[in-house]
Write a structure and sequence with these properties.
Largest sheet: 5 strands, mixed
Structural class: alpha/beta
CATH class of the largest domain: Alpha Beta
Low-confidence stretches: none
Strand order of the largest sheet: 1-2-3-4-5
Oligomer: single chain
CATH architecture of the largest domain: 2-Layer Sandwich
CATH topology of the largest domain: Fructose-1,6-Bisphosphatase, Chain A, domain 1
Number of strands: 10
């Protein structure tokens, strides 16, 4: 049997991790924060073990594992978030995700995002690309459920957009990929594992991905903090970046 591509390997592992997480939640043995913590730990162990078994020479960076800087010397590095949206997972919501991304030279070149909480479970990967739908007349911006980014709120007002509150970063990014929204603008602070896999999938689908000042997103850095992110339809990229620049200059 032919070896799986990095994207398909990520998709398979993310899908299996997502099914495992659902079984844990549906058992009813834990709930809330305790469930989220247990899910993070269990999924992380499974994903890390699977990646090391299939790609032993690659580097690895996970939110739930102690970082070892040997990854900086690797040509290929896996960046994972076992449960993105731990709170939503613990609350029994559907807007959480499993992220498995792969970068080379700081660029996210492959990855998968599983959305196990949706009906039947969904996995999107950078090898399986579906056409983007036609743009609606009113742009939709996905934002945090509790802390919508100031820039996102201002941009929505400037372009006549609609705000859609949602949980995890992966769920928000995949809402744009799936045509449920057109813009995901975040400025409240993130880390590489929050966006690597979503950006890999979004780029494969022809979306614009950058920092909110238009600078490129660079991964596998010594400092893993990536404070802001823009994933959007290319038709809206220039306008959104212009509106954000206006906010910075005032």
């Amino acid at each position: 049997m032919a070896e799986l591509s990095n994207a398909k390997l990520a998709a398979r592992i993310a899908d299996e991790a997502g099914r495992m997480l659902l079984v844990m939640r549906e058992s009813g043995m834990l709930e809330g924060r305790a469930l989220g913590d247990a899910g993070d730990k269990t999924a992380n162990q499974f994903i890390c073990h699977s990646l090391r078994a299939h790609r032993p020479d690659d580097g690895l960076l996970s939110e739930e594992s102690k970082d070892t800087l040997e990854r900086l010397d690797k040509s290929g590095v896996w960046i994972i978030d076992p449960v993105d949206g731990t709170r939503e997972y613990g609350e029994g919501r559907s807007d959480w995700a499993v992220h498995i991304g792969y970068c080379e030279g700081g660029k996210p070149v492959a990855g998968a995002v599983a959305l196990p909480g949706l009906d039947g479970g969904i996995v999107l990967d950078s090898d399986t690309v579906t056409p983007l739908p036609e743009l609606p007349s009113t742009p939709r911006l996905v934002v945090s459920r509790s802390r919508p980014a100031r820039e996102a709120v201002a941009v929505a007002e400037a372009i006549g957009g609609e705000l859609l509150p949602m949980g995890s970063a992966g769920a928000k990014a995949m809402a744009v990929v799936r045509g449920e929204a057109e813009i995901y603008l975040h400025s409240g602070g993130q880390y590489e594992w929050d966006s690597c896999a979503p950006v890999a999938v979004a780029l494969a689908h022809g979306l614009h991905c950058s920092r909110i000042d238009g600078e490129p997103l660079v991964y596998n850095q010594r400092d893993t903090y990536l404070p802001d992110l823009l994933i959007c339809r290319k038709e809206w990229a220039e306008r959104v970046l212009t509106e954000v620049a206006k906010l910075v200059s005032t």
